[in-house]
Design a protein that fits this description.
9-stranded mixed β-sheet; 16 strands; 31% strand; elongated
Length: 277
């Protein structure tokens, strides 16, 4: 049974997601549809790339991923389909895939060219579903598109290392459901620059001299619960996706607030790591 995932910024209020699912079932009776997320901030390509990059690897090989972010067709926003890491992705060539494939080269890329054969005013519903159904039936990418060798790249959103190799300047790429702030500084990059040195993570007026591997590592459980520094504990961790994250221990954005509000951090804000020689 084919698996098709959906990642969009459509939200849950409108008819869009339901219509897409209905169109898929009209094409394929035996298919499994999985919602990755429909709560992507509108047109936020970086946020979508982070979610997709960390979700797709958990699916079986051969899974088809429809990405409905900034998907309107225009001369500067073509539609593409890729075979990558034994998965298939269908999306607009708006730079999102350049963030997902930073460390993996696609096996195949095509520019979708079936638009003259499909009546379309809503490309995710019309074009992307047709392409997904074609792939699910075992069809080749070359049938629905012309092979291309490159895709649009987004620049200026990767961390910068200074010439002295003692500083990484990163930025916020995602704020999760708990208000935790995820940066674009990976553990791999951090360790490659660190080389065993002490460090300090800075974000606005907040500084962190330890990066934990788990949230609970920041809590001293040998101390009686009533005496622990627990509520509102500010910490930095390498999150499950392998990126530096700033957090509040057991935060609740609806009550005490999350790291994003308490630290005053939002998308694209700067987070710096300084290494001490």
């Amino acid at each position: 049974m084919a698996i098709i995932t959906l990642t969009t910024d459509f939200g849950e209020k409108d008819h869009f997601v339901g219509a897409i699912k209905g169109a898929i079932y009209s094409e394929l009776e035996n298919v499994k549809i999985v919602d990755v997320s429909h709560a992507i901030s509108p047109f936020n390509i970086t946020e979508a790339a982070y979610i997709i990059q960390n979700a797709y690897k958990s699916f079986p090989e051969g899974t088809i991923h429809i990405v409905g972010i900034d998907a309107e067709l225009n001369p500067e926003n073509k539609h593409i389909a890729l075979e990558l890491d034994n998965h298939y992705f269908i999306c607009a060539d708006n730079g999102i895939m350049s963030l997902i494939i930073a460390e993996i080269s696609p096996e195949k890329i095509v520019e979708i060219n079936i638009h003259d054969k499909v009546q379309s005013s809503f490309p995710v519903l019309d074009v992307f579903v047709k392409v997904a159904a074609h792939i699910a039936r075992g069809g080749m990418l070359e049938v629905i598109g012309k092979p291309i060798k490159s895709i649009k790249e987004l620049k200026g959103i990767r961390p910068v290392i200074n010439s002295e190799k003692n500083q990484i300047i990163g930025s916020v790429i995602y704020v999760d459901n708990y208000g935790n702030v995820v940066t674009n500084i990976s553990k791999e990059l951090f360790e490659s620059v660190r080389k065993g040195r002490d460090y300090e993570v800075s974000a606005r007026n907040y500084k962190f001299r330890n990066i934990y591997n788990r949230y609970s590592d920041a809590i001293n459980f040998s101390i009686e619960k009533e005496k622990r520094e627990e509520d509102g504990k500010k910490l930095a961790i390498f999150n499950s996706a392998g990126y530096v994250e700033l957090a509040i221990y057991k935060s609740n954005p609806l009550t005490v607030g999350g790291a994003n509000t308490l630290f005053g951090l939002d998308f694209r804000d700067t987070v710096t790591v300084n290494f001490k020689d």
